[in-house]
User: Fold this.
Amino acid sequence: MVVLTRGGEAARTLGWDAMEKTYMAQPGETVATFEFTATNRTAESVLVFEAVPSCGCTTAQLPAQPWPLARGASGVLKVSVDLAGKHGDLEKSVVVNSSAGTDTLRLRVIIPESPETMEKDRRAGNTLIARANRQAVFQGSCVSCHVPANTVRTGAELFHSTCAICHESPHRASMVPDLRERGTGKNADYWTQWIESGREGSLMPAFAVKNHGILTPSQVDGLVEYLTKRYGREAKSP
Assistant:
């Protein structure tokens, strides 16, 4: 959608429908298109020589080159801006040189962040918070994901509602270990240590209530039993 933000100036001999236009991009759009209408207000014919964009991602197309405009005639200059890989507020310009003088047309494009970028930024922010305080997953907005709604969950149900969201996510962060690789053959002591106390200096929080987490002793025991059975019983220390 194009919004006119400032009208043409009557003092110009080559009149434009607007000297500046704003394009409100929609999520997923890769090109913003503009049209500027020029009208020859002089007593003679005007020859438009060129339209020079401010950067390589902006293109300007004259109806002809050079572009003749008879007295009172109008025509359209088409401009496009490549939006691929961009977000935020962009400002571009096109300088039009003609026998009537030089005009500078200004373009503004407002590009919303894609859902993927927003999610990436959110995850990065949460990671910084967790590095400063690994128990932060039990506070603020993180609670809805990391604290099960049903406090009596245990075993497999508890694992899939509270642990798998990080460890088995299809978009698992690189610093989160894959339990199928890390946990194979580990015994109950191993799982108890990790669940109750987590790991200092990492993003793994302490889940036991006694360590300011959310899991009661019975829930810890249920998780340990489930994980030990799931990944094997070979005795290894944490």
